[in-house]
Amino acid sequence: MMVRDDGQGAWLDVEAFRAAARTWLAEHMPLRAQDARSGREPADEAGEVSRAKELQRRLFGGGFAGLNFPTELGGQGLGIQYQQVFDEESAAYEMPTILKVPTLAIIGPTLEACASPRQKERYLPPLIRADEWWVQLLSEPTGGSDLAGVLTRATRDGDLFIVHGQKVWSTGAHYSQFGLCLVRTDADAPKHRGLTMLIVPFDAPGVTVRPIKQITGESDFCEVFFDDVPVPVENVVGAVNKGWSVATTLMGFERKAAGVGRPRDVVGDLLRLAGERGLGDDPIVHQAIARAYVAGSVEGYFARRVSAGIQSGLMPPHASALLKLYRAEKHQRNAETAISMAGEHGVLWPEDDEWGGEWAQEYLGTRARSIAGGTNEMQRNVVGDRLLGLPREPQPSADVPFNQIRQNRFRPT
Asked: For the chain, which domains are there?
C-alpha cells in the first residue's frame, strides 16, 4: 500500500498527496497515447474490460483506488478533494474509465450510503479491486423518466424474492456480475412506496442479458430479462418497500458521475480539425474554440463548487442536477461545433480513412447525454422545485395505489 507521511497514517495536506501521486503515476501508469485521436472509436469491449481490471489493480496495489471509501472496506478514507487532485494528476495517464461508470462512481457510493454492514463488507472490497463489476437496473421499456412506475415485480417466497420483468438501457450489463435492481414489491401501495432495491447476481437462473445495437454501431447499453429469478431476501438494500430512497440516492451519484468517461482533449481536437480544414484564420472558428475552452474550464470549477457544497451540507444532494445539465449541454455544443467545422468530412469518408466517421460518431454519441441519467427536462424540474423552491408539478396519482393507475398499470402474468 501507499506510504503516506512519517508514520501517522494520514496525509499532512492535499499538496503532499499531490506530490506522491505525481511520482507514483510517473513510475507505474502508462501515458495515454499522444498521437492518437481521441474520438469515439469502435471498442474492443473484452479487451477494454480486461485492461481496465489490470489498471485498477495497479491503482489498488499503489493505494490510489477507492480514495473516498473507508479504509476498512478497502479504500483510503480520504476526502473528495483528494480524488479531485488525483484526477488532475492522472489526466495524462491511461485510466480504467470504463470501470468508473457505473461501478465505482455510482454503485459503490450507493452501497456505502445505503447497504447493510454485512453487504458493504461483502461487496465493496471486490468492487474497489475490480474483481466484480456492477450495473444499475432502473429504466424499463414502458418508462424511463417515470422511474417510480416500474413494472418489474418481486414476489416474496419464504427467504427469496422471485423477480420477473425487464430492464433496459443498462450500461455494461453484458460484462457485469451484479446489478442494483429496482423492483415493485407492493402493487397495492402508491407507486413510490411499494418499491424495493435488490442486489441481483447475474449468474442466477433466469437472468438474460442482450446488448442493444446503437446508432453509433456500439453496444454499450443492454436490455436485461428476469424470468422468475430467485434472489435472497438478504439482498435487499435498505428496507423492503423503501427502495425509492435508495433509488434517489443512486440518481444523485449518477448525476455527479455524468461527466466521467473517456478523457478527451476537446480544444486540442478542435484546433487540429481547424488546421485540417483550413479554418485556422477564421475568426468565427476562433470564437467557437474559445467557447469550448471556457466551457471546459468553467466545468472544473463548477464541479468542485457543487461537490464541496454537497459534502459540506451547504447544498442539497439534488444540486448534482446542475452538473448533469451543464455537462450534457456542453458536450452537445462541442460536438455540434466539430461537425460544423468538419463539413462534408463529418458525414462522408473513404473506407480506408483510419479515423473515418470520427466526428459523426462523436456527434451521435452525445445525443444520449441529454437522456442518460435523467433527461435535461427532468434536471430542470429538479433544479426548479428542489433547489429554487418553485411550485412542483401536479401529481394526481401520488397517493393512488399503483395497481389502480391506468397508465403503466401493474399487470401480473
From this structure: 14-95 (no CATH), 136-242 (2.40.110.10), 264-374 (1.20.140.10)
